[in-house]
Amino acid sequence: xxxxxxxxxxxxxxxxxxxxxxxxxxxxxxxxxxxxxxxxxxxxxxxxxxxxxxxxxxxxxxxxxxxxxxxxxxxxxxxxxxxxxxxxxxxxxxxxxxxxxxxxxxxxxxxxxxxxxxxxxxxxxxxxxxxxxxxxxxxx
Length: 140
Description:
The protein has 140 residues and is mainly alpha-helical. The protein has one domain (2-37, 52-134). Helix content is 69%, strand content 0%. The chain has 7 helices and no strands. The model has no long low-confidence stretch (mean pLDDT 93).
């Protein structure tokens, strides 16, 4: 029963993120969409005019949630893929919560391993490099 409750919580949290992302208007600059949530300008952009490792993620999620996959990928490739993963995890968690399947346990055993997590970290770093290289400056 605990797995089903945990899965329901995970599904609810992810659904909340996706609904919030769908309610945002993505910033055309590729960064700064988070400002609609009452957050401040990125500290890295404010101080050194360079994006931080998470710059563009809210914009990418908002683009993806608003059916603009190309814009999502341009804003932040790692987050564009992350938005798809989040949607898949939502459905998987909902399935576990509703039917009590072992899908969550199996997915955790497959994906929460160093041989998967290290490449994910490398992809995040590569996506940050992409963001730094393509950053137009003066936004955020």
